[in-house]
Amino acid sequence: MFQFFQYNWQVRDEWLTLLKDIPPDELLKERVGGVRSILYTFFHIIDVEYSWLRCINGKEDVLFDYSDYQTLDRIQYLSNQLRTEISATFPHDVPIDKQVFIPWDSSHQNVTAILHHIIAHEIHHIGQLSIWARELNLHPVSASYIGRKF
Amino acid sequence: MFQFFQYNWQVRDEWLTLLKDIPPDELLKERVGGVRSILYTFFHIIDVEYSWLRCINGKEDVLFDYSDYQTLDRIQYLSNQLRTEISATFPHDVPIDKQVFIPWDSSHQNVTAILHHIIAHEIHHIGQLSIWARELNLHPVSASYIGRKF
């Protein structure tokens, strides 16, 4: 499972690099589908990943305010900051069938379902970015897993 | 790993059902990004999954001709047919670090990288479909892993 997180992080970083010279209004522009903008896609991916991993680790959710993350630099800062914590606390040794409490819908989910969910969530949204990138005449970051080193 | 295949297959089937009343010209229409059309996206996902799994199982690749699969019914038929074989021959017991030969680029890859690759490949392309679905005023199939039963 952790290899998929490494894949997602590497792809995410490549996207943040690819987009660094795109004008802010294009990053914030409301688009059709997905979560409506390129910048918000990153915020959403990062926020969702962190929230679910906090659940697995039995920690309270932390709410981030999107208005504090309106540039790619701020997004990259948040991504790096949370990744450090996630890497240090990743549930490598938590039993995959352990049930954990999900405060935002008062349910319980098992660890393996949550990890699958986080992984698929980011890959799905990155697929959406790849369509929007073409609208900006950019060549999208490769989604290939084969050929990457972690 | 197999759970991700079950997720991808369930999501794929839900997409094929969602799109069954969409006019053929919309399915075949060339779009911006991805692999250019909705119908070809399915063909590509199915073909790629099968080819890599054939490599893992040491079997020769089978080439399919897209011109034989120009309707959703034909795509669903291909998907079902190959899924039966894939389910029966899934490499549950193959060592994940086993190196297998990839004929189309004369390289070797290990089984775990190939399985990660297949999984990410389909989720990525389905993310692209979700943008195109909005262009057709459709509500996309949920990409959520949480809440599904396999």
Quickly give the CATH architecture of chain A.
Up-down Bundle
Number of helices of chain A: 5
Can you give the helix content of chain A as a percent range?
A: 55-70%
* Elements of chain A, N to C (H/E): HHHHEEH
Count structural domains of chain A. 1
**What oligomeric state is this?**
homodimer
Arithmetic mean of pLDDT of chain A: 97
Major beta sheet summary of chain A:
2 strands, antiparallel
- The N- to C-terminal Cα distance of chain A equals 13 Å
Kindly state the number of beta strands of chain A: 2
- The CATH C-level name of chain A is Mainly Alpha
* Beta-strand fraction estimate of chain A: 5-15%
Protein model, in words:
- 2 copies of one chain form a homodimer.
- Chain A has 150 residues and is mostly helical.
- Chain A has a single domain, classed as Four Helix Bundle (Hemerythrin (Met), subunit A).
- Helices cover 56% and strands 5% of the residues of chain A.
- Chain A has 5 helices and 2 strands; from the N terminus they run H-H-H-H-E-E-H.
- Chain A has helices at 2-18, 24-28, 38-56, 72-89, 111-135; strands at residues 99-102, 107-110.
- The first copy, chain A, has a two-stranded antiparallel ribbon.
- Chain A is globular, with a radius of gyration of 16 Å.
- The first copy, chain A, starts with a helix and ends in a 15-residue tail after the last helix.
- Chain A binds chain B through residues 3-4, 7, 32-34, 109, 112-114, 116-117, 120-121, 123-128, 130-135, 140, 143-146, and chain B through 3-4, 7, 32-34, 109, 112-114, 116-117, 120-121, 123-128, 130-135, 140, 143-146.
- Chains A, B: This is Damage-inducible protein DinB.
- Chains A, B: Keywords: Metal-binding.
